[in-house]
Design a protein that fits this description.
Layout: H1 9-15, H2 19-25, H3 34-38, H4 41-47, H5 52-64
């Protein structure tokens, strides 16, 4: 499975629980908040001022492990 910036945050966490720690490490600890239910990874990352390339690379690396 490859994760993209257009994938939903909650959907990604539900399908690949290993990504939870990546989101938290990048400062997105509110995975249970209302926004996580409808935002894409890109939208959430931009809202938190994250580096999109680093985040998506880290998420995909977590899925491969």
């Amino acid at each position: 499975m490859k994760i993209s910036l257009q994938d939903g945050i909650l959907e990604t966490v539900e399908k690949t629980p290993a990504t939870v720690e990546v989101f938290r490490a990048f400062g997105m600890g509110c995975l249970g908040c209302a926004a996580a239910r409808f935002e894409t990874i890109e939208q959430g990352a931009k809202a938190h001022g994250m580096d999109l390339v680093r985040l998506i690379n880290a998420l995909n690396a977590a899925v491969k492990e």
